[in-house]
Design goal:
Structural class: alpha/beta
Number of strands: 23
Strand content: 15-25%
Radius of gyration: 31 Å
CATH class of one domain: Alpha Beta
Bound molecules: adenosine-5'-diphosphate, magnesium ion
Distance between the termini: 27 Å
CATH topology of one domain: Rossmann fold
CATH architecture of one domain: 3-Layer(aba) Sandwich
Number of helices: 26
Shape: globular
Helix content: 40-55%
């Protein structure tokens, strides 16, 4: 970057110190570089001029009209009405007909400053009411015959109210950008290697910057956008891959090889045939654990895809190689479930296994920690308790982290520090369907495996939307299922702001469930009871001593009771998509047909309706995640710490997944062929990366 780009915007023609201060404060624009990278978020098509008669004739009916541009004379406006009903009304005529223009805000200023009687270009959404055409708050620009406005695509910048009040509106900013472009051209250097531009038909940086701010045609604008989006995504991928490369070259890993233990398990104790997806993922895990570098792998698997078994086999692989392994779950219930599920296999194989949670008694804990440190204990399952400092292993070779979304990146790195010399291999498992595009960006520093197949014989869960008036039928349905030997979950939402209300909600719900099923055994589990009580109820339900489990979302993640075949979700509109999907995943785990019933009131918000419809339409976690991404935007989907990464200037992860994949592919190829970017054609990349490394702290995400 040359000094030119470091110049303060105050030196630019039309800016000056006062406006510069505003730009600094409101938009964090300090330098020419900041300014030119402040892209418009959309463009308005002002290339055509409509006429009023034509507009009226072609009015399609009652739906909204797209914005139009008109050219005509502005006749004297007058202020009418009193108090907050006051408005400015003016007649506008273009020769073909006339219409009314209306202002409700800033009336005095508009009244004083418009040149009444002169020709104007106006732009806005017109409305038709009783044969009269009108437009509220039109964007009006004086048509100066000596210097007529250029018709075409107009950029629209995102601005604050303060800026607009000080007349730094989108037009003013556009003018400033124009001034900058006039002097900036010779200083714009290409940031991508020419072969990349050519292969992907990308326009040059110079053209792109020009046409994003001053597009000459739709086509050029599209090209500019595509180029700038690609560049943005490409450099993010390049940075992430460099980070991954750095970690790998830096961290040596335990070298494992084939073991008799895994073979023995496969041949004699595996309770079912592994799915092809499970086999594929295990091959990827083995390869990672054998190559001498520390494994950092994310395993994405939809609910019920059998991640636990993959984790167990990977742990056996480590143990067979003389190492220890641990598995961390986000809740005690889950940790216990894993432990109880895996213990029988471990015992048959003669492998020591234990469970460590917050409720492990002191004495037992001390003994356990001793056995861990001297290496007698091979597999440890647990909760957060595992990351405490006192937990030390003799030779920790593999860490599995289940349901990763509940753990921060920081906790992940704490686990790494459990052995002095070599970092353990890390397998992070998540059932939160993260859209592939997002996973690629967020976990670009991890290798990603996907379990995209459910075990054979599973019937897709049938999902239905029901309202209050159908409650009796729903209850009868549940009764029929229970009579046929199944069990059911009934779940109430948890609204964080008001724990009291939740509790009341749940308790009222539980009471009415008890009333409806007086002859059945019912478990009630919620956030207010102790972990021990919770576990007790969960175990009762698992042993089929109770037929119905009434709960808040504590059962959301991971709980496995294959005999349960109905999931009734109350106030389903209050749940997010990811949560609904998780909850539904609690059924459909056995061979029986399972059902999910989404109960709502009659009135559901538009977004709520989309969520419900999506759930009814599909059981595919990735499809659901994509809808979720579109509804909520990437920032909200991930935790706060990661959303900073999502401050993209121009690309949109929800919409540009194709480009992202392309960018990812090129970045991967380049790093593979030229890891240190030493080839002459990659010098530009190195320069750009150095520059980017200076401006953001990527260390935060590692
Ligand atoms: P999740 O991926 O949601 O954590 P689990 O590991 O809890 O899923 O597995 C869900 C259920 O499927 C469990 O009851 C498990 O025993 C069973 N399961 C796992 N793999 C297979 C397989 N290959 N064939 C049949 N059942 C399997
Ligand atoms: Mg699980």
């Amino acid at each position: 970057m040359s000094d030119f780009w470091e110049t303060s915007v105050s030196y630019l023609k039309g800016v000056g110190p006062a406006r510069a201060a505003l730009l600094n404060k409101e938009l964090h624009i300090f330098t020419y570089a900041d300014l030119i990278h402040y892209y418009p978020f959309r463009h308005e098509d002002r290339s055509r001029i409509e006429n009023i008669a034509h507009l009226k004739k072609n009015w399609a009916g009652d739906d909204e009209m797209p914005p139009v541009q008109l050219k005509g004379r502005l006749l004297q406006g007058r202020i009418v009405g009193e108090g907050n009903k006051q408005r400015l009304v003016a007649l506008f005529t273009d020769g073909s007909g006339d219409m009314e223009l209306l202002w409700f805000q800033g009336i005095q200023w508009v009244h004083k400053n418009l040149k009444w009687g002169e020709t104007y270009l106006i732009y806005g959404k017109a409305q038709l009411f009783q044969e009269r055409l009108s437009m509220v708050h039109p964007d009006a620009e004086w048509f100066d015959p000596a210097n007529p406005p250029v018709l075409g695509l107009q950029p629209v910048y995102s601005l604050t109210e303060t800026l607009k009040k000080k007349f730094l509106n989108t037009k003013a900013l556009s003018k400033i950008q124009k001034e900058l472009l006039k002097i900036a051209e010779p200083h714009i250097t290409e940031t991508l290697p020419p072969y990349l531009l050519e292969k992907n038909h990308l326009t040059s940086k110079k053209e792109a910057l020009k046409h994003i701010h001053l597009p000459q045609s739709h086509e050029m604008l599209e090209q500019a956008k595509r180029r700038l989006k690609f560049e943005e995504l490409f450099f993010i991928q390049l940075q992430l891959l460099k980070l991954k490369q750095f970690k790998k070259s830096y961290h040596q890993g335990y070298v494992c090889k084939e073991t008799a233990l895994v073979k023995n398990f496969y041949n004699h104790h595996l309770p079912f045939e592994l799915t092809n997806a499970q086999k594929k993922v295990l091959r990827e895990v083995y390869a990672d654990m054998c190559n001498g570098r520390q494994m950092n792998r994310l395993l994405q698997g939809d609910v019920g895809s059998g991640k636990t078994m993959v984790a167990f086999v990977a742990m056996l692989f480590a143990v067979g190689n003389g190492l220890q392994a641990c598995m961390m779950a986000p809740t005690e219930i889950l940790a216990e479930q894993h432990f109880k599920g895996l213990q029988p296999y471990a015992e048959k194989l003669g492998i020591t296994i234990d469970l460590l949670t917050g409720s492990t008694k002191n004495l037992a804990r001390r003994v356990m920690l001793g056995r861990l440190e001297n290496g007698n204990l091979k597999i440890l399952i647990g909760t957060h308790a595992l990351i405490e400092e006192v937990v030390q292993f003799e030779r920790l070779g593999l860490c599995v982290i289940d349901e990763q979304h509940r753990f921060g990146v920081e906790q992940r790195s704490k686990l790494w520090k459990k052995t002095a010399d070599i970092f353990p291999h890390v397998l992070v498992m998540t059932a939160t369907p993260i859209p592939r595009t997002l996973a690629m960006t967020l976990y670009g520093d991890l290798d990603v495996s996907v379990l995209d197949e459910l075990p054979a014989g599973r019937k897709p869960i049938r999902t239905a939307h029901r309202t209050e008036s159908q409650r009796l039928k729903v209850y009868q349905f549940i009764r029929d299922e229970i009579t046929a030997g199944r069990q059911a979950y009934i779940v109430y939402p948890l609204i964080e702001e008001s724990e009291k209300l939740d509790y009341k909600n749940l308790m009222d719900g539980a009471a009415s469930v008890k009333q409806a099923f007086p002859d059945l055994n019912i478990s009630v589990v919620h956030g207010k009871i102790s972990a021990a009580e919770k576990d007790y109820e969960m175990q009762r339900f698992k042993r089929r001593e109770t037929e119905i489990m009434v709960a808040t979302t504590v059962i959301e993640v991971g709980v496995d009771v294959p005999n349960a075949s109905v999931m009734l979700i109350e106030n389903a509109e209050k749940f997010g998509l990811a949560q609904l999907h998780q909850l539904r995943g609690r059924v459909g785990r056995g061979a029986e047909q399972s059902y999910c019933i989404l109960m709502t009131g009659l009135k559901v918000s538009k977004e709520g309706r989309i969520r419900i419809e999506t759930m009814v339409r599909t059981t595919n976690g990735f499809e659901i995640a994509d809808v979720d991404l579109n509804l909520r935007g990437p920032g909200n989907l991930m935790g706060k710490e990661q959303s900073g990464l999502m401050n993209l200037l121009i690309a949109d992860l929800a919409q540009d997944s194709g480009l992202l994949q392309l960018a990812r592919q090129y970045a991967t190829d380049i790093i593979e062929k030229d890891p240190n970017l030493l080839l002459p054609q990659h010098k530009v990349l190195q320069i750009q990366l150095n520059h980017k490394n200076k401006e953001n702290q990527w260390s935060r995400i590692s």
